[in-house]
Design a protein that fits this description.
With about 500 residues, the protein is α+β, with helices and mostly antiparallel strands. Helices cover about 25% and strands about 30% of the residues. Strand 9 (about 135-140) and strand 10 (about 145-150) form a beta hairpin.
């Protein structure tokens, strides 16, 4: 499939010659007070008010800190980037600082503040053109500053996403397309994670954008998302292999932020091994942390529920990694060797491709009111020795069944390519107490090997208290009636 060049969305940056530490009047070992303005858990970003200035700091928080909380900080580093140690917190019941242990909270690293007007993470390229439409996601909102991640409609190998910081006065209502005096969009209508569409009204050093109306038809929104994500998607194994390749070199380079190195290590070190996936409880946990249910967890968090698996969620880690890679590539204060910069760019591209694949799996797993069966589709990455691999899993539940055995009826489809064998598709279904198993493979040799081991599989079922039903292996591929996949396939024309 041919992939066109992405739309160049770059805005020309001014050079910020002000030192962050000087603008805040910071001194080494200085103790000062700060107040939390916002806490973005998905971005590891804490927005603080220090010396009457609003700043963003980066920290992987293990203890929740709500907006309005007062902190006592100490400056422990000024160059190349100011860092703060949290000495104490001020509780709501008392103005007396409460000391905390160093292990509870990490150092806070100051992020580069947004420049006046608009800035992006990519300094080269032409300016925006009037009338251009952009797809974006709201990443962060603090005061009158809005940070967006621009989503290219088509992606080429190595293409980098774009972070855009605007003053909220630059984002206008849809009437700006015909009325230059249109009013700015209310910041209250924007939330982190919200997808939006922009149209460039005025280009230049301080451009303005019209916020286009959201598509109200859910089916159309899904189709638009599919069009955007399909060219980008790739298996998470590509990202894992890239991180294995890149991390040793990144760890030896002092110009690369420690937080980025830790985020990459966190993804690699916390994936399950093949042996762990054979344990039912470990497999259940891996599915729960696969990223498929991240938004549900965040919704529960907003409702006051706690979920210990949130920090281990694969999609959340992907989003954090992408954010840190964007910051690292866009950091003009640290000059990096060409090989390191190439590794960062390749890692960013594969991170976006892996996130696109995961998002497509979420779209495929959306419940459908007119279909009695609910399905969940995911590609679960794991390590087989030192090599990254993945298994495709589809879980199906018949919501229409009202029989006495309804709670015992289920089906799971698994696709995997074992070493030395062709790809195997397997569907295991349980109905009326019996476990039925079908296998498919396109090579007769693999089918013969499966048939030779069906008696062993039956013995394993019985050993675990299960009643084996029919077992069979076929050459070919299983037929699919998944409506989500039908919708995806309909976007591609074989006659084109």
């Amino acid at each position: 499939m041919d992939i066109n060049l992405p739309v160049n969305l770059n805005l020309q940056l001014a050079i910020n010659k002000l030192n962050d530490a000087n603008s805040l009047n910071l001194k080494l070992h200085q103790v000062l007070e700060a107040k939390i303005v916002d806490n973005q858990i998905m971005l590891d970003t804490l927005t603080l008010k220090i010396n009457d200035k609003i700043v963003n700091t980066q920290a992987k928080l293990l203890t929740p800190l709500p907006p309005g909380q007062s902190l006592q900080l100490q400056v422990v580093k000024l160059l190349p980037t100011p860092e703060f140690k949290i000495l104490a917190v001020l509780t709501a019941a008392s103005a007396v600082p409460k000391a905390i242990t160093h292990n509870e909270l990490p150092l806070l690293k100051l992020l580069t503040p947004p420049l006046p007007g608009t800035q992006s993470s990519q300094p080269d390229g032409p300016q925006l053109s009037s009338g251009l439409r952009l797809s974006a996601t709201v990443m962060h909102l603090s005061g009158d500053k809005l940070t967006l991640q621009i989503l290219p409609t088509t992606v080429q190998q190595g293409a980098k996403p774009l972070l855009l910081t605007l003053n909220t006065q630059q984002l206008l209502t849809p009437q700006a397309q015909t009325n230059p005096a249109a009013s700015p969009v209310s910041p209250d209508s924007l939330k982190p994670g919200m997808p939006i569409t922009l149209q460039v009204i005025k280009a230049g050093d301080t451009p303005s954008f019209a916020l286009m109306p959201a598509i109200s038809d859910p089916e159309q929104r899904i189709r638009e998302a599919l069009k955007q994500l399909l060219p980008m998607q790739s298996s998470p194994t590509a990202l894992l292999t890239q991180l294995q390749h890149a991390l040793p070199r990144l760890q030896t380079d002092a110009s690369v932020a420690e937080t980025l190195k830790q985020a990459a290590q966190d993804i690699l070190h916390n994936l399950p091994s093949k042996s762990l996936l054979s344990d039912p409880s470990q497999l259940k946990q891996a599915i729960h942390q696969s990223g498929l249910f991240l938004e549900s967890k965040l919704s529960g968090l907003l409702s006051g529920k706690t979920d210990s698996s949130l920090q281990g969620d694969f999609k959340l880690k992907l989003i954090k990694l992408i954010q840190l890679l964007n910051q690292e590539i866009g950091n003009q204060n640290q000059e990096k060797p060409s090989d390191v910069l190439e590794l960062l760019q390749d890692s960013l591209q594969k991170s976006h491709s892996s996130l696109a694949k995961l998002t497509l799996d979420q779209l495929h797993s959306l419940p459908k009111e007119d279909i009695p069966k609910q399905g969940w589709t995911l590609e679960l990455p794991f390590f087989q020795g030192q090599a990254a691999d993945s298994v495709k899993i589809e879980i199906e539940q018949d919501k229409a069944r009202q029989s006495e055995h309804a709670d015992k009826s289920w089906a799971v489809s698994i696709t995997i390519t074992p070493p030395g064998l062709d790809t195997i598709h397997c569907k295991v279904s349980c109905y009326d107490g019996s476990v039925n198993t079908r296998f498919w493979s396109e090579t007769p040799e693999t089918v013969d090997k499966i048939n030779a081991h069906l008696d062993y599989l039956k013995a394993q079922f019985e050993k675990n208290g299960l009643t084996a039903g029919f077992m069979e292996a076929h050459q070919g591929k299983p037929l699919t009636t998944d409506p989500a996949k039908t919708a995806t396939t309909s976007l591609l024309s074989e006659k084109a």
